[in-house]
Amino acid sequence: MQMMSRFPWAVSRSVRAAALALACTAGGLVAGCASLAPPAPVTSAVGASVEHYRGRFSVRYEQNGETRNTYGNFDWQQNGDDATVQLLNPLGQTQAIVRENPRLASLELPGKAPLSGPRLEDVMHDALGFALPVGGLRYWLRMQGAPGSQANIERDPVTQRPTQLKQDGWTIDYQAFFDGAPLRVKRIDLSRDLGGSPLAVRLVIDE
User: Which of 19, 35, 80, 141 could be 93's S-S partner, Cβ–Cβ 3.0 to 4.6 Å?
Assistant: First the structure.
């Protein structure tokens, strides 16, 4: 995605501090910049598959007619149908924790009671101004469509690696993969334009 081709992963300490100050005032991501306690490690239930992703994220979205950007680190833990996503600011402080399962979704912000609802994207959008498609991402990170709706997947004709997936109004571009087997995605770009409100997300997985 051209508008996110230059991503500020490496910043000086002063710029990191400035970014943290901006994060405290923009986008609704934090309240008072108080830190949240990190979520407890996932304990695997018998027969459940456990997945763990750590990396960096960038989000570009529109709020009140203005383009906004936020970025930081993430820690994604998934045990069967239960997913917990921890968002951290550039200094490594936990700023939001997202929890989702087939029955309920919740969002925890510093200094506030957990917000919950049947649709996580609605909860996140109301609180943060943008929403990560956690429900779909759990499948898209595996390079497969989510159940319940039509997904179109394009593959490289030579390697047969997926290059793009479209589902539920989202376009997912697979930009890089880890070396070796089994095939694992290293970087994906997601985009959606819903009702004239563009949203672009980049995830770079470190491990």
Answer: 35
The four Cα atoms 85, 38, 123, 169 give a dihedral, to 10 degrees, of -20
Those residues with Cβ within 8 angstroms of residue 58's Cβ, 6 or more apart along the chain or in another chain:
4, 7, 69, 70, 71, 201, 202
End-to-end CA, the chain: 23
φ, ψ for residue 137, nearest 5 deg: -60, -35
Q: What 8-state DSSP symbol labels residue 206? A: -
Does the model's pTM come out above 0.90? no
The DSSP symbol for 118 reads: S
CATH tag for 10-205 (out of 3.30.450.30, 2.50.20.10, 3.40.50.360, 1.20.58.100): 2.50.20.10
Average pLDDT over residues 99-118: 86
